[in-house]
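Supplementary notes for students who missed Thursday's class. We covered one full example, reproduced here. Read the sequence, then the structure, then the short commentary at the end.
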Amino acid sequence: MKALADLHLHSDCSDGLYSPQELVKFAEEKELGGIALTDHDTLEGLHEFLSAPTSTAIQRVPGVEVSTKYNGHELHLLGYFVTAGDTPLELKLQSIRESRQTRFPKMVDKLRALGIEVDEIAVQKVLREVDSPGRPHLARILIDSGVVNDIDEAFSKFLATGKPAYVARPKISTTEIIGLLRDSGAVPVLAHPLLIEDIDLKSLIQLLKSHGLEGVEVDYGYQEPELLDRVEDIRKVTEELGLIATGGSDYHGDEGHYALGEIVTPVETIDLLRKATDRIRV
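Structure (token representation):
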């Protein structure tokens, strides 16, 4: 069987449910050839991820996912072969995490203003234990309290953009993060492009390439059939522009996302990313 890789995974260092070591174990059980840890705005889990014991030669790619802004749109960037340490990238990620920490209680306050009881012990546990808290953490608290049935309901009723408990947070420009990723030796890749609404994706990708974008997450766990129908269009654009096509499940461990290993890319994609990072670091 041809070796495959899932290059978009989240651990409990951001908004996933499982530890980096557990993700490695799950990937082994799925007989994957490679995986990437891409937690939101944090590199905290990378040491555990890279040092977790394995019985197979599974390739592990240290990564990160960063939320950015471009002309009023929210874009997510994946950075592959990122290195932890005291770098300008890590300083920027620290400021993003601090904004997440201050945003979380504001969303809780909005829910309480709506008359919803939010478990304070659970809130403090998230703020104390999670490096990069986000809306999925709050959604799970609402599920545990019986306020909603699942994460989708929590977002559609309260937490999505424009909903009663939504709180915006500052985002860094897409081009700035591309530069910071490259300066740290990481390979910048545009994540789940079909989730970006009301924009000419080909023109956007061309522009981001001129700023140093190296790849596009072509294969992704889109939930909407109409988006899945457009994946091949994105693949064609990626190939025409000479960019690396990556893929991954965006696994979080909950029912709101695809399972680990359900959306994959050829393991050779890791070699392409490795060559790109070698070129960037010259």
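Commentary. Residues 15 and 202 are 30 Å apart (CA to CA). The first strand starts at residue 4 and ends at 9. If anything here is unclear, bring it to office hours.
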